[in-house]
Each structure stands twice: as C-alpha cells, then as structure tokens.
Structures
1.
Amino acid sequence: MASSPLFNSFLPKPTTAAPSPPSTSLSFSAKYVPFTAITSSSDSSPTAESYSLDEIVYRSRTGGLLDVQHDMAALKQFDGQYWRSLFDSRVGKTTWPYGSGVWSKKEWVLPEISDDDIVSAFEGNTNLFWAERFGKVHLDVYDLWVKHCGISHTGSFKDLGMTVLVSQVNRLRKMKRPLVGVGCASTGDTSAALSAYCAAANIPSIVFLPANKISMAQLVQPIANGAFVLSIDTDFDGCMKLIRQVTSELPIYLANSLNSLRLEGQKTAAIEILQQFDWEVPDWVIVPGGNLGNIYAFYKGFNMCQELGLVDRIPRLVCAQAANANPLYLYYKSGWQEFQPVRASTTFASAIQIGDPVSIDRAVFALKNSNGIVEEATEEELMDAMALADSTGMFICPHTGVALTALTKLRKSGIIGPTDRTVVVSTAHGLKFTQSKIDYHSRQIKDMSCRLANPPVQVKSDFGAVMDVLKNYLDSRAS
Ligand SMILES: Cc1ncc(COP(=O)(O)O)c(C=O)c1O
C-alpha cells in the first residue's frame, strides 16, 4: 500500500546527480509490428512482419492493428535508476525538446527523430491534483488524485499523442514524402489538437466532425487554427469510416488513434504519474474510454516502466464508459464472450460517444494484463459526479464525471478500499464543456433531477432584498 500523500511530501528526496543522456538517442530504435506480435508474448522470436516508422502504414498485412515496438534490449542497457534519474532531471527545463512531458521521454517515444523535426507546445507535465475534499467527504477515500491531462495546450490529453504524430509527419515531409496534409475523424478533441500542431508546423489539416455532436468550444478550435473542417451529417463512427476511405485514396496522413504513433505520446502520462509519486505505484488508475486507445496507452506506459526496472508492479486499470456508448462494458460483463459494436446514443460525455471502438483489442489486452475492470455511468450519474467534483473546487469535463462515477461504484462495492491510492484521469478541460454545466445548473435537462444544481439567485437591486437572501443562505449553511 502506498504511504499517505502528506507523509510523502515530507520525505527527503535522494540527492542523485543527473545522469548524462545517452551519447546519442540513435542507439535506440522503434518499428511498427502487428499488434498480435505484442499479445503473443510466448513467442519471443522476432516478428517476420515489421515496418519502419518512416513508412506510411496503418494496418498489418491481415488488416489488424499495428503497434510501435521499441528495441527493449537497447533500452535495457541502462537500469531503472538510470532512466528514473534521466527523466527526473528533465522536468521543468526549457531545453528543447525536453521541456515537454512527452519529449522528456524521447528515447522511449520516437528515439530516432531529430530534435529539429519535433513539433511541440511543451505539452504534458500536467497537474496531479490531490482531490482531498472530494475523496474524504464524499467517497471515504484518503489517497485520491486527479491527473488533469486536460490542462494542456488545446485542453485535452490529445496533445500528448498529436505532438508525436505531427512531428513524424513533419519529418516525412522534410524527407519529401508526398503527404499533402493530415486528416482525422473526431469527437472534438482530436481535431483541436491536430489543427493546432499542424498550424504550428504549417502542415494542412483536414478534420471530419459529426454535425451537431460536439461542443461549440471544441468546434471553434480547428476553425480558429485554420483546419479544413467538414461537418458531416453522421456520427463519429460514420466519420471514421469516411476518413479511412479518403486516406486510402489520397496522400493524406491518418491521425486517428488507429495510428499507433499517437499512443506513444499518450503513454507518457502513465510514466508521468509514477514520476510525480516519486516512482511509487498507485493501486488504481481510472480512465474514461471511447475509441479505447488511451486505456491501452496507459497500460503500455506502466508496463514499460516495469519491464525496464523503474517500478516493480503496475496499477490495476479501470476503463469507464458512458452507459449510452458502452460496447466494452457489455463485452466485459459477458466474460469477454463476444464483442458486439453498439449504436452509441447521445451522451453529455460526447467525446466518448463511440459504438465501434477501433482499439477494442488493445483495450482488452490492457485490461486482462492489469487485472482490470470496466464500469459504466448513466447520464444522471456522470452529471451528478461532475457537479459534485466541481463543488469541491474542480471544474471537470463530463468524461471525467464518467471516471468518477466508476470510482464511486467501485468504492461502494468495496473493491476500491479507503486507503487505496487511486488516480482518476481527467481527459479534457471543463471549460470545453460549459454548455453541459449550464444545462445542469439551470435544470434544463429532460428526465434529470439535477439534484446538485446551483442556479444564481435573481434579486432586486435593493439592500434589504439582498440582506434577506443572504440571511436565508447563511442560515441554510449553518443548519
Ligand atoms: C475528453 C476525452 N475523454 C476520453 C476520450 C477517450 O479516449 P479513447 O478514445 O482513447 O478511449 C476522448 C477521445 O476522444 C476524449 O476526447
């Protein structure tokens, strides 16, 4: 069991000198392999099918997922203490590109890219917030943390993956590969990140968005960043199908998380959590899931840290889904019998309104190998959880409300214990989803009691009237 957060903060830090970085990161390498080569770990022979990261390839020969495989033997030439000290020595620096939480782990991400090709907004290094009041008062958990991945350049964790993908595209274009732009289907956040990083590197970006299914704040981001925006009369799954057809016809690089490069950046959030706990491993990490790339990215980050000796175990992972878009939850509940895509219904957690997740196999692998759990949240549960968390000083997005609902349920059933160190991953900034909060607090949601609504009190511009209202309020707080 991890020690209490308070106790931790008073522990003396070991005074190890920062190691010098490996003489050149070119001694490390990575390549694409079929995802099945990762899952069949009993087979230690090198996979026959592999591709350079400089090739433009998204699927294996049989049409399956790909994964980025690092040369682990080369990384293992250095021990866990070496990597811990190296990563720690880079935090908070402005030295290019290590000021980024992603590129401070460059040797584990894209070891062969030149620093000059990297497109970065110094993403990552996000706040790991001790949710003391929310945990103690509302859940009887004493070691609860929220990893605010949404306090980032474009307001979501997507920046972590997009810096990697766009950097690689930048490199390919400099190598004169015929790429006219980068495209994605999006439930909002991917397009925001893609368009920002592409704009920074002067690369055209093309985004397919489901019409009327994303928030205004999300829609305005790619528009402002100069992307070519197609608002298509379908849902995310429909947009995904179209972008895959388009990118197989035109030299447009596919930026969806089908593309395993993105997950290399996203996995650094897991490494960062360990680093922020001085390399102590939390008991639980709860991640909201839609297309299901991120839950695998977390697994991959934790697993690499264990394999390379930075830590000796990994946390149990929980994937939290909206009940209105819950194909993974249903699959898990069936005892992993048979996967059935669903038609996702409207959810306030709009970025995870996905019925046919591309990374289903990745998610199942991550959950099975981390003794993981899948939970779900109804609309009322996720909105109440968001409102409750906000009332303790957070300002979270509805997806984080889904994750907090999963925590609440697992705490109630006793699966998560009161002193378990638990991290809830907050995937986007609450300011991107203000309309859902406005609807909730003005009780504008059909069939929802909005029991924690806190609407403003209308009062006349009159001292007596203001005093009456205030006295009532103070009396109600005192009782
Ligand atoms: C805010 C937010 N949370 C969660 C997710 C889910 O991530 P994944 O699709 O990798 O499961 C997304 C992805 O679109 C997102 O934008």
2.
Amino acid sequence: MDERAAPRVGLVSLGCPKALVDSERIMTQLRAEGYELSKTYQGADVVIVNTCGFLDSAKAESLQAIGEAMAENGKVVVTGCMGAQPELIRDKFPDVLAITGPQKYESVVDAVHKAAPPKHDPYFDLVPPQGLKLTPRHYAYLKISEGCNNRCSFCIIPQLRGDLVSRSAGDVLREAEKLVKAGVKELLVISQDTSAYGVDLKYAESQWQDRQVRAKFFDLCRELGSLGAWVRLHYVYPYPHVDEAISLMADGKILPYLDIPLQHASPDVLRAMKRPAHQEKTLERIRRWREICPDITIRSTFIAGFPGETDADAAFMLDWLEEAQLDRVGCFTYEPVTGAPANDLAAPVPEELKRERQARFMEVQAEISARKLEAKVGKRLDVIIDEADAEGGAEGRTKGDAPEIDGTVQIGGGRVLTPGEIVTVEIEDADEHDLYGVPV
Ligand code: SF4
C-alpha cells in the first residue's frame, strides 16, 4: 500500500435491498474514517464481500464471489447473511481474513482496520452528512427494522437475523430527513415485515422535530409523507391496520403503491407455509384498498410448486390471480433452503411441474399487466427520471413502479431531462411491461 495514499476498499454486495443498506452503512463508516472505494480488485487493499444466504443458489453465488475475490485480491472480509454459517465459508476458503454475521458493522470495520489500517488524519468531511449511497442519489432505501417475528416454513431469515428489532421513529425520520435534504426524491421503505414495525417497541414514542412520534406503521408513514419526497412501501403484509395507510395514499401523502409478498393464494398451501396475516381474506382486503384508493398499484410475489401443492391448489392460485387483477407480479419456483422446516414436508413437486405452473401463472399475469398498462395510454402521469441522455431520451418510472423490480417509462423527444427530476409525461404506448411517452 502506498504510504501517502488513503487505503482503498473494494466491495461486492450480493442479495436483497436490505443487504444493500448494510453495505451502504459499512462504506459510510469507512469513508468517514478516510478510506476510499476501489472499483477493481487490483486497486483494493482489502475486499469486503457482503453475502446472501437465503436460497441455496444465493449461497452458491456468494461462495463464487468469495472465491473470485480471493483469487483476484486475496485479502477478503466476508459479511452478510452467509456470515451466520462461517463453517461453510472456512471449509472452502480457510484464508479469508474475517467472517462476520449480518448487521455486524463494527466487526467488519474492525477487520478492515486490521487488514488496511486507516490513515492518521481521517477525512471526516469527505462524507456527506446523509452517508454514502450505493443507489443513485435520487432514491434511497430506508431500513426501518431488522429481523422478523414470523416463522414461514420456507424461510431461514429469523434464524439468520433474529426476531424483529425496530428502529425508533425519531431515528428513522432523522435519517429520512437528511436524505431528502441531500437531494433524495424517493424513499423506499424496507424491512422483513414493514407492517409489523414497532411491535417490539410496544409502539414507544420518540422525539422528532418538535413532537413525539409513535413507532407505529401508520404514524411513521404519515410523518415520512410530510417530508416532500415520494415514499414507497415494500414488504407489507395485509393486516387490517394497513387500511389506514391506504388513506394516506388516497390523500397523496405517500405513493399509492404496495408491495405485498403473498407467495400463494390457496388456504392449504398458505397454512403449510405458515404465512402471517390471514391471507385467505386477502381478496377482501384488496377490494377494500381499491375502494379507498382507486389508483393503488399492488405488486406481489408468488411461489409455484411448494411441497404438497396439488393441481387444485395451482388452479386456485390462477383463479385468484384473475380475480385479484394485481398490477405487478413475480413468480418463482420453490427452492428448498437448507435449514428451513419446509424441507421436511411431504409430496415435493417435480421440477418440471413447478416450472410448468410458474409459466402458466406468468402467462395469465402477462395478459393482466398488458391490459392494465394499456389503460394508461392517453393519460398524463408523473414520472421520476432515472437515466437521461443528451438528446432528450430518458428512462423513468411512474408512482406505480419501484426501481429494479417493476416497469419503466421510456421517454423520447422533447427537452433534456436530469435524473431525479419529476416530470409529467403523456403516455402514448404500452406493452406488457413498460410505458412509452413524451414529456408535456
Ligand atoms: S415474513 Fe416469513 S418469509 Fe418474510 S422474513 Fe419473516 S419468516 Fe421469512
């Protein structure tokens, strides 16, 4: 390492948006201490690999990433969900410098200190007060809690991350406020179970600005909605108290968008999955939400081929989908996760049948999505710009589209736009995924 230069840290971040938030926190801390980021393995004095250990395929990807970092650099610190199973990593890569579990920011930072000691004169003021974001600067993920109190049979997140631990409302709101002041236009609220926010704190109040705010889903949504940014809710379960937040959507305080991972519709499969929130009544809830806020966009994910799923269950899910008319849907085939109780369930579904059911489900949804998007042609919609070129071409998203998982609006002609700008776009065309239009 060059004596005069600041030490450089490389980062490989795998997994979900929640892991991305962890990576952001680690890098913010290291930047605050004078470290610099390296975009290449060769330029880094140490490499952090933030792993995902949710599915076996994610574990394999994580091990591959660790192997690559070891081969290309050799000084590697491993963190994230897979850090909860250090023996799997040590077996393959006995020379990694340190392995820490998820959210162990301090241990990761300690390991980096040892591998590449910080400079004596830390560059505190190099770090913007909102922290360093790995997402584009106009949107940011806001993590409101860690862990989960549910025990879905296919999931090992509670084993890896423990029970729900919510941040205080004041803490979350102060972070959100800083982000908005720094230019963030869209806050993406994430956690394992967003609607359970604050249960562990018994909804305790905390100070924010001149008032006390309860650590409660509705109260937090209301206050976030006062910051002047788009607020998008992810990983919400259809508990009855969610209805209140829909009225905030109808009033334009937060985005009319709900990401609810339903995973299935058949009561028998849901029971075997041990899913929270009485999902059998979900159709009723969705109807109610649409009454309160007719513009709401509902996104969900489903699993095809869960153990014990019969032809009748699969057909039930298709009928349910036709009736629910969700706006955005993802469907994965069931994949066993080492350590998950669902592995012991009887009647696993053959791979081919899983894929067949998944394809049929996505076919039905493609038609629903295409119809829904077609209905937007001729409308004028607010669009946040994600990318823009010098010729007036741009890509953005409506209030109904979350970054990376939903569709886009492709904008042509007109004036040159900038990322983060919110413009009104006249929609001229649509396909089953995206919209096309011109700014007005
Ligand atoms: S709600 Fe279920 S699937 Fe989601 S993290 Fe908790 S246990 Fe896992």
